[in-house]
Amino acid sequence: MNKVKIGIVGLGRLGKRHAYNLANLVPGAELIAACSPIRAECEWAGTELGVPELYASFDEMLEQASLDAVWIASSSTYHAQQALAALERGLHVFVEKPMGVTLEECAEIERAVQAHSNQVFLVGFVRRFDPSYRYAKDLIEAGKIGTPFLVRSQTCDLDEYAEFQLEFVKTGGGIFLDMNVHDIDLARWFIGSEIAEVHSVGGSFVHQGFATLGDADNTVCLATFKNGAIAVLSASRTAFHGHDTHTEIVGTKGILKIGTTPRKNRVEIFDSAGARTDCVRDFYERFEEGFITEAREFVACIREGRKPEIRPQDGTAATRVGMAMTESFRKGTVVKLQI
Prior knowledge:
It is built from 13 helices and 15 strands. It has 339 residues and is of the alpha/beta class. It folds into two domains: 4-126 and 290-308, 3-Layer(aba) Sandwich (Rossmann fold); 128-283 and 318-336, Dihydrodipicolinate Reductase, domain 2, CATH 3.30.360.10. It has a seven-stranded mixed beta sheet with strand order 12-11-7-10-9-8-15. α4 runs parallel beside α5 and α9 packs across α13. The protein is globular and about 50 Å long.
């Protein structure tokens, strides 16, 4: 098969990374178009990556560019409508998480993917492509820790990004949909069951602006699964040491711990201040290999005519739980999910 011609929409903090990968690090991919309403971002794609076709409008890109696939890395509120428009045009679709910010959007996407069964559709749950998380999943499936019954997982961003997040939270779905969506997906993936009940607590302990938006800068959720397993999922916008994502899976015969210390590398520093290690600064540095593997899998699925492991139903489930976690936090009550 010839190279897969891809157009990307969204060239922000993460979108630029995706665009670089597609242009330089994904065999079989050709990034021929980029779209952003911000002129400087489009100019960056043209100058730095040599993308030949630049658009301010997503609809114009769909109409004018000769695409095989679209890569959606725009603001969360646009994910569903852009994915639906691309599917209707017969294009393969990668969409960043969350797949949709309402269950109605997610249901529409599920129906559209079913109606266009020859097209590849992939939701960006990047941690499933991280070598350490993939290895943990393989160990679980091999029975190395027995039956998993507890997942503890957290996502913590650097405090210096909090001011940016204050603006993003207005359209991003809030801390649970924006940050914990990965932890939700991992918990479901490792436990192999659906979350049936959630109880979320939290607050704006460092940045009071989040409280005025009905959101928080630090949260914890206790989730119960349909099969009786449990998960503790936390998120923070106020980590001062680095991007701190880690997960623990407890089974009847053992425990797996992934990334407990967010090490930048294997160097340990010993000096007059004591012993320490440098930490990764952001989510992309931590999951750089996962992002590249994710993109390669999307293109490989298209070229080989196969479907990804991640289904649109996984995107719907993550949104459903994230919305329930938000409702629990705002109402101060336990929320039972309809599953």
